[in-house]
Write a structure and sequence with these properties.
By secondary structure, the chain is mainly α. The protein has a domain of 78 residues. 65% of the residues lie in helices and 0% in strands. The chain is built from four helices and no strands.
Length: 117
């Protein structure tokens, strides 16, 4: 790798974010229990708002789960000494890109190609 990566730095950042996601998921599970609204005392808009909030919470949970899986993969790649290399082309991922988001698994070229498809 042309730019030496401080793997301990990235591992620490990934681990901290991973723990944060797990804590958020626990809190979200407590708050995402289905809410029963009394249809005689709650208006139609309140029910619609509750359903919308429920859908937004589900979407948020999906995004957090995707990030959690990316982090798990990045941590595994650190252990296997493959971290910092693109999973698609095996080229180096720029250090600045990893500093921005240490869970990224692709170089900028492959990410742009995937986005344009």
């Amino acid at each position: 790798m042309s730019e030496e990566l401080d793997l301990n730095y990235f591992k620490k950042r990934l681990t901290v974010r991973y723990q944060s996601i797990l804590a958020d998921k626990k809190a979200q599970q407590k708050n995402s229990a289905p809410k029963q609204l009394d249809q005689t005392s709650v208006g139609r808009l309140s029910r619609m708002d509750a359903m919308q909030q429920q859908q937004m919470a589900k979407a948020s949970a999906r995004l957090m789960d995707m990030e959690r899986r990316r982090i798990e993969t990045a941590l595994k790649r650190i252990e296997e000494e493959e971290y910092g290399y693109c999973i698609l082309c095996d080229g180096e991922i720029a250090k600045k890109r990893l500093e921005f988001d240490p869970s990224l698994l692709t170089c900028i070229s492959c990410a742009q190609k995937a986005e344009n498809q």
